[in-house]
Design goal:
Helix content is about 60%, strand content about 0%. It has a two-stranded antiparallel ribbon with strand order 1-2. Helix 3 packs antiparallel against helix 5. The longest helix has 21 residues.
Length: about 240
């Protein structure tokens, strides 16, 4: 979703992605050999780098520039209160540490680019990464299979039918692709359950199906070509 006001997208859009990836996670760096200072990226930054390298690699340079610019010229409290600048969300660090932390993030993003260290694809490790990697699946589960499902639909099949009937076909196809990608991870059943919860599922799959088997059934159902309407090419 675009940031508001619109100007924030241009100045802070990628900065917001990096910081948002750390919400609810440990923002501090961990020991290792991740940069010249011997500090490896946090798990949250690793998730951001992994996803961005494989989807929008050009955005890494923008992230580094926005992180560094904000850290070097932080806005005063009055301008933040007036809404003239982006306010960095609370990631569990004291305010006195935020400026140095943003510079560390910028250094680590730059190191990743300069070294061409592209993280290998893996199972998402954070809530942000689950949501970023499977956005349409998150929309499907969070919108049709929240705890309110039992009040809106008689069963899971009815909810799937409603999604199919009210969603653009291109988005339905995208959902099918995301489910196929998730199943290709070959997770254990408990990991599917945890992953679907991160994506917004708040009800159990229909008995007696496991989470993985239910995903397969949804993919099979929505992946079937629908009926074609209108005149045939021959005019019949």
């Amino acid at each position: 979703m675009p940031m508001k006001p619109y100007e924030f997208d241009r100045r802070y859009g990628e900065l917001d992605q990096v910081v948002s990836a750390h919400i609810g996670q440990n923002a501090e760096v961990v020991d290792g050999n991740g940069d010249a200072d011997g500090r490896a990226p946090s798990h949250a930054l690793q998730a951001y780098l992994r996803h961005t390298w494989h989807t929008r690699p050009w955005a890494l340079a923008i992230a580094e520039q926005q992180l560094r610019e904000y850290a070097r010229f932080p806005p005063g409290r009055l301008r933040l209160r007036l809404g003239e600048f982006y306010s960095v969300p609370d990631v569990g660090l004291p305010e006195s540490r935020t400026q140095d932390w943003l510079l560390q993030l910028a250094d680590q993003v730059r190191h990743s680019v300069d070294s061409s260290e592209v993280p290998m694809p893996s199972v998402p490790r954070t809530h942000w990464e689950w949501q970023a990697r499977f956005p349409e699946l998150a929309q499907f589960l969070g919108g049709w299979f929240s705890q309110d499902m039992v009040d809106e639909f008689p069963d899971h099949e009815a909810a799937v039918s409603h999604y199919e009937a009210t969603t653009d076909g291109a988005l339905v196809a995208r959902l099918v692709g995301e489910v196929a990608e998730l199943l290709a991870l070959n997770l254990e059943e408990t990991d599917y359950v945890l992953g679907l919860a991160e994506l917004g599922l708040e009800v159990d799959p229909p008995a007696p199906l496991s989470a993985g088997v239910w995903l397969e059934s949804v993919m099979g159902r929505l992946g079937r070509p629908g009926p074609k309407y209108g005149p045939s090419p021959t005019g019949g």
